[in-house]
Design a protein that fits this description.
It is built from 18 helices and 15 strands. The protein is an alpha/beta fold and 487 residues long. It has three domains: 64 residues; 266 residues, TIM Barrel (Alpha-Beta Barrel); 108 residues, no CATH class. The two termini are 28 Å apart. The structure holds zinc ion. The site of zinc ion (ZN) has 6 residues, from loops.
Length: 487
């Protein structure tokens, strides 16, 4: 089959063998010309939905525009994302560049864990100036290229408002991560008793809540949970409005999505940890309101900083995780979701041990960092320009992240010999500097209106596609080996 396709193509074209797919009288394949531009090749009867094709010999070459990805998915159903439910663990591969999915597929292909390939938060979309269609199409093209048919999810991450929901529903996302953190009152942990009481009594349903929780003992597995008056008031003041917002978001999604979907609640981006009792309060209220969640991302104890390992007491993390799991299994079952989940090597064994198969781990920026690792090795001069730029941007970029980065610990990039630049990807502070600047690196333009870095960066990734995939496979093996089994 591959030879037949090659015969129809001009010389020098590469055919991605795994992509080749017959459907009725049509044959589909991903091909690439010598300039590293990819096309969808279709021979036989041409689907009328595909656009902007150029006829060559017996087939037609179509550009990889989003419209064509969606059209192709009408013929190849494995390109469509699906809800994951709670039958087994899952792993989110965010891809800010739109070229990492083939490497992600290879990382997960023979492991007992279900991937999410399309995953981007509204914040990331803004920073990268991408649209949800692009995110979905990039994932579909990657799945097509690798001929991956085992199914994948599509996560519209950190949705904060009903408007956010409207942006992603029409694109076919199957997982909706609701982030009500704007409604979480982080001050609840430190309020005086009087203030706490005042805030509590401000909540309309507060007498109902006291009736529902006041003298009640909740059982969750081996746990017995009972709220003291203060604990209850804290949980309510901190989360009640967020719960109401999540209910509203759920109802909007439910009314707009036909069929099943995954609904994750993320409350990870708050200052204070979510205690098991607060988790219980949240889930019990949501259940009463008819909200069916497939996952919750609590704010865990310790520090989940971007791009580096967990910082904190592992025993305490394990104890808290165990309690969260008991609640999720009793009141669900649903998954415990770990956000900022890349590079958290010290906790993966604990996640597997305590969650069993009920977990989701989310990663995003780490695939961008692997792209930079590739560039550091191939084009050191270009990499040092990206690094210096990221460093200049750092004070500004770090504001929206909680990080303890100490830039004085970073070796001077001007004094590092080229062959040692990849070492910066091993240094925590340097990793964080690079991690948070992705938006500026990918969107900054020079005075002529050309991208300062993006075009060059994408060119290198396209020319070294295999090497990028290998780096991703190697990097994610360190994540997936402790979390899943090899099939
Ligand atoms: Zn998150």
């Amino acid at each position: 089959m591959i030879d037949e396709i090659k015969k129809c193509l001009p010389s020098g074209y590469h055919v991605y063998e795994r992509s080749i797919q017959k459907a009725g009288k049509k044959t589909f394949a991903m091909v690439e010309n010598p300039k590293h531009e990819k096309f969808l090749y279709v021979s036989g009867e041409q689907p009328s939905e595909l656009q902007k094709g150029k006829r060559i010999d017996k087939g037609v070459l179509y550009p990889l525009i989003s419209e064509n990805a969606f059209a192709l998915s009408q013929y190849l159903s494995y390109l469509k994302p699906r809800p994951l439910g709670v039958n087994g663990p899952s792993f989110g591969f965010g891809d800010r560049l739109g070229v990492a999915t083939p490497g992600h597929v290879r990382s997960v292909r023979s492991r007992s864990i279900t991937p999410v390939f399309a995953q981007q938060s509204i914040r990331e979309l803004k920073r990268t100036k991408r649209v949800p269609e692009e995110v979905m199409a990039s994932a579909m093209w990657g799945v097509f290229q690798e001929g991956y048919k085992k199914g994948f999810g599509a996560d519209a991450d950190h949705l904060k408002t009903p408007e956010d929901v409207e942006k992603v529903v029409p694109v076919g996302f199957t997982m909706f991560t609701c982030d009500p953190s704007d409604y979480v009152n982080g001050r609840a942990a430190t309020m005086s008793s009087e203030e706490l009481k005042r805030e509590f009594e401000d909540i309309e349903d507060h007498t109902g809540i006291v009736n529902r929780y006041g003298d009640r003992k909740f059982k969750a597995g081996r746990l017995q949970l009972e709220f003291s008056e203060k604990e209850l008031m804290r949980a309510v003041v901190k989360y009640y409005r967020a719960i109401k917002h999540a209910e509203k978001m759920y109802q909007i999604i439910e009314s707009r999505v036909k069929g099943e979907f995954d609904f994750e609640l993320s409350i990870d981006e708050t200052d204070e940890p979510t205690t098991p009792k607060q988790h219980l309060f949240i889930i019990n209220e949501l259940k009463d309101a008819g909200v069916k969640i497939t996952g919750i991302a609590p704010r865990f104890v310790g520090d989940f900083q971007k791009a580096i390992d967990y910082i904190g007491d592992l025993d305490e993390f394990a104890r808290q995780l165990e309690a969260h799991v008991e609640i999720a299994q009793t009141f669900g079952p649903y998954k415990i979701s770990v956000h900022s989940g890349s590079d958290k090597f010290s906790i993966y064994p604990l996640i597997k041990k305590y969650c069993g198969t009920l977990f989701h781990v989310k990663t995003a920026g780490t695939s961008y960092l692997e792209a930079l690792r590739l560039i550091a090795g191939i084009e050191p001069e270009f990499f040092s320009r990206i690094f210096r730029f990221s460093l200049e941007r750092f004070e500004e970029e770090r504001r929206s992240y909680a990080m303890t980065t100490d830039i004085s610990k970073i070796p001077n990039v001007d004094e590092l010999p080229g062959e040692r630049l990849p070492e910066l990807l091993e240094q925590n502070d340097a990793r964080q500097v690079l991690h948070v600047a992705y938006g500026s690196v990918l969107t900054t333009k020079n005075e002529n209106g050309d991208y300062t870095f993006k075009d060059e960066l994408m060119r290198i990734l396209k020319e070294h596609e295999e090497e990028y995939e290998e780096l991703l496979v190697k990097h994610f093996a360190r994540h997936l080996a402790p979390l899943s089994i090899s099939l």
